Amino acid sequence: MKKINIAISLLCLLAACNSSSYKKAEDAQDAGREFIRASLDGNYDKASFYMLPDSTNNFLLQKWKTGYDQLSPEEKAKYKNADIIVLEVKPENDSLTDYKYFNSYKKDTTSVKVLRINGQWVVDLKEFMNTQK
């Protein structure tokens, strides 16, 4: 019985260590920047950490990842080397912020919403989908 308790403790410790080494965003700008940087770098595990976890956002992020995976190594390098140019970080209230930016490679203006939910700032991609219609 003692060996089982030790094994369970070790498994819990491993799970805690492997859960996420990403730092929680301190504010809306931090969440937006971390999410965008991770997306440009092709680090979709990190991007998902900074994203509101729901089915629509997961679908959109998977779609972005599929597109990124199909890029040539040269194209991926251009995204990785791109700077994030923040145009506006506009709080709508204490838990909703509009984050408007473009990257120095593609220069397409993009807007995402950053939400504070249960004290954590996360990106909501559904707004991006609404502006692309």
Cα(first) to Cα(last) distance is 60 Å
CATH class: Alpha Beta
The CATH topology name reads: Nuclear Transport Factor 2, Chain: A
Strand element count: 4
Over all CA atoms, what is the radius of gyration? 17 Å
| Beta content | 15-25%
The strands making up the biggest β-sheet line up spatially as 1-2-3-4
Order of helices and strands: HHHHHEEEEH
How does this structure look, described?
There is one protein chain. By secondary structure, this protein is of the alpha+beta class. The protein has one domain (25-131): Nuclear Transport Factor 2, Chain: A (Roll). It is 51% helix and 23% strand. The chain has six helices and four strands. It has helices at residues 2-19, 28-41, 44-49, 55-69, 73-81, 126-131, and strands spanning 84-93, 96-103, 110-117, 120-124. Strands 1-2-3-4 form a four-stranded antiparallel β-sheet. A hairpin with a 2-residue loop joins strand 3 (110-117) and strand 4 (120-124). The termini are far apart.
Keyphrases for this structure?
Nuclear Transport Factor 2, Chain: A, alpha+beta, 133 residues, globular
Write the layout of secondary structure elements.
Blueprint: H1 2-19, H2 28-41, H3 44-49, H4 55-69, H5 73-81, E1 84-93, E2 96-103, E3 110-117, E4 120-124, H6 126-131
Antiparallel strand pairs: 1-2, 2-3, 3-4
What is the structure about, briefly put?
This protein has 133 residues and is α+β, with helices and mostly antiparallel strands. The chain is built from six helices and four strands; from the N terminus they run αααααββββα.
